[in-house]
Write a structure and sequence with these properties.
This protein is of the alpha/beta class. It has a single domain, classed as P-loop containing nucleotide triphosphate hydrolases (Rossmann fold, 3-Layer(aba) Sandwich). It has a 5-stranded parallel sheet, with helices on both faces. α4 crosses α7 and α8 packs antiparallel against α9. The protein is globular and about 60 Å long.
Length: 228
Amino acid sequence: MKCSTPRPGFLIAIEGIDGAGKTTQCLRLQGLLERWQQPVIRTKEPTSGQWGQRLRDSALTGRLSWKEEMDCLLKDRREHVEELIRPGLNAGKVVITDRYYFSTMAYQGALGGNPLELMAVNEEFAPEPDLLVVLDLPPEVGLDRIRQRGDQANDFEKAATLEQARAIFLGIEKSYKVTLNALDPLEDIRDEIFRLYMRIAVQRIADSGMGPREQLNATLALFGAPPV
């Protein structure tokens, strides 16, 4: 059964191939939301937990088998959802995640998995985001950015894998998905993500069934203003 229960918080997933600028945009968006007095949690996948760390180590020391990777990914994400994402949403916070299950679709799909089946497995327990941002970037630019920051491309970051992953990201069909050009200026990207968040949040308040005064105060809270 899909996790579609309404919740007071807002989940933003920022996705894209390696080098697309996901971490940079998560940081910039967090800063902007906090300036507007929004309660924010910024997180990432794989996490720093035992299963996530095993995945990070394997990227540098030698790939796990496809089955082992999937096992670690799902265990890591289940912990992430239960210990941080769901509690944050239930507390009414804006949760920004740097990668989510769409990366599993893209990267494990690039290795031969069925992206739609991978999506279905994850959506059995992982809440769908309110906003999915895919930062689109040509693989050669992503690899160049990786080298420029002093890192060495690992097995997840080979050109052929990135090209396949990019195609899967672009092929995701979700009503809450938006694709942005990762080559655009950093502040323009951040501001567009913020505008999308505000537009969706305001519309959600309008569709909530709350009374006029409650709607007004909920909208004022989005703009960091006190209730009336």
